[in-house]
């Protein structure tokens, strides 16, 4: 697949085109990729952040054709905010994941969420939306966020994997909403599918998806093993663990690494393998 620049419309296969938003960052790679499905009538998956230039490119790609649905994988602000403006211009309903409002007493992650997201229809696991020659079936994949959905396109044996499986990096799993146990279960769910190709929201298409998913599961198991060894060695504070586990990491990504390690620790505690007291973690007795 050819890496595009913002503003380019790339045809990936007969039913799928891609448009890159101009929002590169350490967390989004080259930016958020919006996918357009269909030929006669269309679905637009993850229209992206509020950006008039990106909206203009999407309307150019749509070429006046009817839009059956604006489809959202999850409500991080680089994925869903442009949906409202696209709905206003096309009249298409917003469908997909549920709204997500966090209410917890711990460190909050909702600054990254689109609090104005208002779907016309929430899709449960296995429910679908379709048009002429295409169907998008919701595949519930919580973990990165509790409301995350992937979307299968059975006509092409393709899966739009959102941020659950990406083509450039491992997925951030950040408590309080991100859940490592749910993330691993969702990876296992994808392993049992036979999709031909994944189209992620960040990074290039994944042409051997089961191999990558197996590798992601192995990577997380390795991280878990590292954490358990550090606990046994007496390293119980998350920042200290990150310093030892992520040598050479871009300093801008340290907060995400700390949240990922915390997600592993919370999962280990739920499984009876770790305990915590005052922010210091220990192996369970």
TrEMBL record:
Name of this protein: MBL fold metallo-hydrolase
InterPro entries: LACTB2_WH (IPR041516), Metallo-B-lactamas (IPR001279), RibonucZ/Hydroxyglut_hydro (IPR036866), Sec-metab_biosynth-thioest (IPR050662), WH-like_DNA-bd_sf (IPR036388)
SUPFAM superfamilies: Metallo-hydrolase/oxidoreductase (SSF56281)
Stretches assigned to the Metallo-beta-lactamase domain: 30-202
UniProt cross-references to SMART domains, sorted A to Z: Lactamase_B (SM00849)
Cross-referenced PANTHER family: ENDORIBONUCLEASE LACTB2
């Amino acid at each position: 697949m050819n890496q595009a620049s913002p503003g380019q419309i790339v045809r990936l296969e007969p039913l799928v085109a891609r448009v890159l938003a101009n929002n590169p960052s350490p967390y989004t790679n080259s930016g958020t990729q919006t996918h357009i499905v269909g030929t006669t009538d269309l679905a637009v998956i993850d229209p992206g952040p509020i950006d008039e230039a990106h909206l203009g490119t999407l309307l150019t790609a749509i070429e006046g054709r009817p839009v059956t649905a604006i489809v959202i994988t999850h409500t991080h602000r680089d994925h869903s905010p442009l949906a409202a403006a696209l709905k206003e211009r096309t009249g298409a309903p917003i469908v997909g994941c549920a709204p997500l409002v966090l209410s917890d007493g711990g460190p909050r992650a909702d600054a990254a969420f689109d609090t104005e997201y208002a779907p016309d229809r929430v899709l449960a696991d296995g429910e679908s939306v379709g048009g002429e020659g295409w169907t998008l079936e919701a595949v519930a994949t919580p973990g990165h966020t509790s409301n995350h959905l992937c979307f299968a396109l059975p006509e092409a044996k393709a899966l739009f994997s959102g941020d659950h499986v990406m083509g450039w990096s491992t997925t951030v799993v950040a408590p309080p909403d991100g859940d490592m146990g749910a993330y691993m279960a969702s990876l296992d769910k994808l392993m049992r599918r036979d999709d031909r190709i994944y189209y992620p929201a960040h990074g290039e298409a994944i042409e051997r998806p089961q191999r990558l998913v197996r590798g992601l599961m192995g990577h997380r198991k390795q991280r878990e093993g590292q954490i358990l060894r550090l606990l046994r060695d007496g390293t119980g504070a998350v920042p200290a663990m990150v310093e030892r586990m992520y040598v050479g990491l871009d300093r801008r990504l340290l907060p995400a690494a700390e949240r990922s390690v915390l997600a592993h620790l919370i999962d280990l505690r739920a499984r009876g393998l770790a305990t915590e007291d005052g922010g210091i973690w220990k192996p369970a007795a």
